Structure formats: structure tokens, C-alpha cells
Amino acid sequence: MKKITVKSPANIAFIKYWGQTKQNLFIPRNNNISMTLSDCQTITTIEKDPKLKEDIIELQKGDGYSPLLKDTHKGKNAYQQINRIRKLAKSKEKVRIRSKNTFLSDAGIASSASGFSALTGALLLDFDQRKIFDDKKEFSKEVRLCGSASAARSVYGGFVELKTGDSHDESYAVQIADEKSWDLVDIVAIVSSEKKKTSSSQGHAAVDSSPYYKTRLIEMQSRIKATRDAIHKKNIQKLGVATEEDTISLHIVMMTSKPPAYYWEPGTIAIMKAVVNWREKDNIQAYFSIDAGANVHVICEKKDAKKVEKRLNAIPFVKSTIYNEPCEGTHEVKDHLF
Ligand code: PMV
Prior knowledge:
The chain is an alpha+beta fold. It has helices spanning about 75-90, 110-125, 130-135, 135-145, 200-205, 215-235, 235-255, 265-280, 300-315, and strands at about 5-15, 30-50, 55-60, 65, 95-100, 160, 175, 185-190, 285-290, 295-300, 320-325, 330-335. Helix content is about 35%, strand content about 25%.
């Protein structure tokens, strides 16, 4: 049978989404903006198999692969995505899927964005939906429905905005600038590889219990404009200030939701303070960004990257770093995983 393989990057959001308008459509409550990550990618191979009675997804584990269980959160979303795309294609055929990450999957880096965009891309191509795959706007809407809306930003390369909206058709991703437009770097400093205690979906569901959530949605509007503008003008200071403010605003909501979610570890705060200190003392233009986890993304321009990476690795809490440049979005590759 014909095999298809797709590669897709994770992304880091400068303006983050937290909370959904319609839970079943996974529409983000606010516009959000990100950059693709060259060294955090998922590769997924798919093949239809008439002998199969059930779909099977296998994820890389150690030197081999093991099945993704249907009763896990990730498993439920992934198998539902197969059913959705198969129905869209009016097909009944079962599929065999294998997937692996180019980065350590136990490093505590969220792999849902790269994983779900690669999975959706592979399914669309295998079920003869190339028209949707090639139309990035439509493709991003299909990815959003897999349950991890941030994955919809990975379909384009470079700098991408995912729009909020009132209906499925209104919420899609657009490219702000491509991967060659700006030599920006994201160095991820790993301080913890533990699985996060509060999942994104639990966090999205709890947002309205934070007294600060409404304020976040209002005060972030000027940051969204500033971030688009900073990307167009390649203004690291403007981007960095907006990025740090958005991270703090997000974590205030997380920590004041009921139940609260505290993602930071001592190492997280040590890096945040170090980055601010390097700016103030040595005028190094580096800025922090933190997702729903303890690890810290440090954003700077390529000309400062070596210096920043060296300094990050000298912080005792930092176990390792991953160096990323902006890269191409979801695309087909020739080398199959099986
Ligand atoms: O896409 P989800 O549902 O896994 O949520 C992503 C949430 C953040 O990573 C914290 C923010 C973002 O926009 O990437």
C-alpha cells in the first residue's frame, strides 16, 4: 500500500491562547501569535491496510514503538481525528500510523502542536484530501478540531496568527511573515522533564473562575498589535516586552483559577531573573516565555544566541537546552518510518 510521511514543527506562542469560546470546536478565546521551532518536530507515517480491523497508532518509545492507548487524553483526540477525516473522505478504510519526535519526548516540551499537525496532515493526504492540505487556511481549521488549537499554528512556516471567532469558519491561522524573514532564535531551557499536573484542556475549562481573566482579554489587545508590528519591523525589544508581559498575564490567570495551576519551579524563576539581569547589566536583548510547564523559552536574535545559550547552560537548574530557529510549516517528506 502507498505510504505517506509528513513532518511538522512545534511552535512557541509570543501571545498565548488560554480558554476556548466553544469547547467542542476548540476555538481560542483570543487571537494568538507564534513562531515555528526547527528542532522540535514530529515525523508521522501513515498507510491504509485492508487487513486491519482497527486503526493503530504507534509512538516511538526508547528504541522501538508502542501503541497509543485509546483511553488516554491524547489517544482519544488522535483516534477521533482519524474518524473525522475518514468520514470527511467518505471512506471506511483503516490505517496504520507511526510517529516519532526529533526531540526528546521526555524533555517536558509539549509535543501536541507538532504531533497533531503532523497527524492531521498525514490523514488528509492519505485520504486523498490534498486540496485541503494545500489550502493552509482550511488545513489549519482541520488541525484545530483535533483538540489542541495551538497545533493549527504549525501548518505555516515562520510567524503565524490563529484567530478567535464565533464559528468554525471564523477561526483559522494566517501567516504574518515567513521563516526566512527574521533571524530570531528560541532557546528552550529544560529545568524539568516531569509531566505537567494540570493539562491545557483542564486549564482552558477553568479560565472563567479567575477574577483576572476578563482583564487579560482586554489588556492583551494592544499586545497583539504590538507583536504583529514587531514581527513586521523585526524589533526584538518590542516583541520581547510584549512576550514577557503576555507570559506573566497568562500565569496570573493560571495561578488564580479554581483549581489553581502552578507551573513554575525554582529553576523557572531563576532563568526569568537571569534573563532580566542580562538585559539590565549587559544589554543582551533576550526575553523569556513560559507555556503550561516549567521550562523556559528564551527568545533573542541569532547574533546573541551563542552567548545566551552559554549563559543558560551555566545556570545550575538547567539540564539541557534546545536551539530553534523559525522553520517551514507542515510538509510532506520522502523518508518513511516503516
Ligand atoms: O493548544 P492547547 O490546547 O494545548 O493549549 C496551548 C496553551 C499554551 O501553550 C499555554 C498557549 C499557546 O497558545 O500555545
